[in-house]
């Protein structure tokens, strides 16, 4: 069963169409890449999934339920987690408190504070910052902040997780660690959609890739297929070549 | 409900909206240039009113002449206030700025209370009760003079901003601070000057106010809130919006004051109700932050 | 989590608590009437300040608490005058009406960010003051309302009443701080949109905070009118009350349990001292503190407070700390 389905989704901001008639669906437990030049509409698509925006037309289904018009917290509780392109930690809280917030209010959360705290610590250890749980969220390295965001997204018990450029700004070693982490998340049975600009990452771990350009889906397929797609090459390199 | 009365009421509203425009324009300037919501603006107006009162009472200076004195005094106060309290917090969160300027309002209001008590004062000149008639419409002389002066001042300000070098620098800073800095504008000095001008305008408004209303320390907060109302209606940092908002407030108050039983009491509440109404409908106010 | 903390307290701490209770219980019998009156007013303001702080935890900085204070006062007074409703019931009524109004106001103001919310609340309280002046036949207008003194003028039961109210507020705050509510509030305050994406419904928690804070503020208003026996609109709707509500927690320590109380103690003592030395303009201290705090102590005294903590204060800390300890 397809977890997420976009049917002809269009989103207008004023007169500008950020997304035009985009349709796709996710396959169970896959890692789906979402690529495209800047301004293609990738983050808008994420915002539509998590409920920050509502589609101007078209339908979005999560587990066959329409999520059009639902508020972000409702969609979260249905099983969607995400990270942010520009990081958004709760700056006056510790790492643990950040993740704990996700545990307490995510999908099916009925945990007491004690159990929730334990769960949060486990998550922090899973992503690799178990030793930094008491640090203030803004006072750790970039890589650790990204790990925290992933832990916080995992905390809401998602079936679908949206990673918005989690590798941006990382050095090659950190990128390898991040790739490993994403794979481990997939092994938890979670479907992943990944916005990424670093092509070797996309080619490496994505089962399939969707390419957006000017708000339209111009290609979809395995990373091999789309790397040879003429339109995709044109979109990234411009029409001149 | 005859047409003559209606015209009279509208005229009164128009005249007072001139005063409101002068009242608000300083606030608009500061908002547009540095994005600060200056709660102390009303206090500057109050000081302008008292300056005129004392100039009149002790030295016999006519209010319309002591306007210049008010402007000078408040320009100085504005510069000092900016240099020591407001400048340092330009990059602080909005709420901090609100608290600080509120604090300045309270300090100034209470200094006035200590020095001059809460007893109301008035500026009554020999021409205070004169009026001019145009057909069935009467124009209170003072109110007419205030209105004319308001038009002159507002026009002068617009000209200043568009035609002088300092004015252009101010506009540049308000539109693009970094760009202005790059082309050699001394941004910090412009902030200082703009704030001083805004205070001076408030001082002039205070002078005009003293000729029409009772002067007391609390008048600062009340008028400050009216200025906020106008700014919220007209759009932050937008001079033409200020004129529009002044008209809306002035005429609404006049209509309510004349047509509602005990209207003058209700008219005082119009600004509060308009503030809530506008913010509820448009939480960011009409027009948004449009630069001058 | 609460139970563990209570069990963890040592014998010394329990003795300390008992001592404090005895002190607070016998206090009204020892002090002079003037100081008792001052204490009652200070405790009432501590209720107001804790309530404001509770609301502020969701990022809603209200400068209009006087609105609810006045609603409570006028409700209690009018209920007594027209229907002979006993004072304490009237106070509850004032609290409940405040809740009702806060729900409406809260919904209307939901989308307003920081400073616009603040301006709206100022307008709210001022509008109410105009209403109470204009509906003269109903509210007594500028001539005000009179009610007979609470407990026939005996201030000792008044002291216990307002003290119980403060204890209620503080218990509420402590309970909230040790539950998920703490995280809901804190994350909404930090970043409402991200909190939303993490499954927190901002509307629900913001309105909840508004309801709780306005209940206690309204109740305190009802207490005020019966205690002082006479009010005019300015006394209960005036901006000075709203400002005091926010200075006290900022001074004493935002988002803590005892911070607002301590801030109240400091501010009210200073204000009273000034009031007896200079007749007009003693509220200047409010302005001075606001300016000083923003310029020099943007973290409030909470920064100093945390530093000066010693073993003597660790008992208080156990009650004030809300940090999640490993």
Walk me through the structure.
The complex is a heterotrimer of chains A (241), B (292) and C (326). Chain A is 39% helix and 24% strand. Chain A has helices at residues 42-50, 72-79, 95-105, 113-127, 142-155, 172-187, 199-205, 223-227, 230-237, and strands at 4-13, 16-25, 31-35, 57-62, 65-66, 80-82, 160-164, 191-195, 208-213, 216-221. In chain A, strands 6-7-8-3-9-10 form a six-stranded mixed sheet, sandwiched between helices. A four-stranded antiparallel sheet of chain A has the order 2-1-4-5, covered by helices on one side. In chain A, helix 4 packs across helix 5. Chain A is globular, with a radius of gyration of 18 Å. The N and C termini of chain A lie far apart (41 Å). In chain A, 46% of the residues are buried. Chain B is mainly alpha-helical and 292 residues long. Chain B is built from eleven helices and two strands. Chain B has helices spanning 3-34, 41-59, 63-86, 94-116, 141-163, 165-175, 177-182, 187-212, 219-234, 239-259, 263-281, and strands at residues 131-134, 137-140. In chain B, strands 1-2 form a two-stranded antiparallel ribbon. In chain B, a hairpin with a 2-residue loop joins strand 1 and strand 2. In chain B, helix 2 (41-59) packs parallel to helix 4 (94-116) and helix 2 (41-59) packs across helix 8. With 326 residues, chain C is mainly α. Chain C has helices spanning 2-8, 11-30, 33-56, 65-83, 87-109, 114-134, 136-139, 155-177, 180-190, 192-197, 202-228, 233-237, 239-252, 259-277, 284-296, 302-307, 314-320, and strands at residues 145-146, 230-231. A two-stranded antiparallel sheet of chain C has the order 1-2. The longest helix of chain C is centred in the middle third of the chain and has 27 residues, at 202-228. The two termini of chain C are 12 Å apart. Chains in contact: A-C, B-C. The B-C interface holds B 37, 85, 88-89, 92-100, 102-111, 113-114, 117-118, 221, 225, 228, 232, 262, 265-266, 268-269, 271-273, 275-276, 279-280, 283-285 and C 61, 63, 108-109, 111-116, 118-120, 122-124, 126-127, 130-131, 133-134, 239, 243, 246, 250, 278, 280-284, 286-291, 293-295, 298.
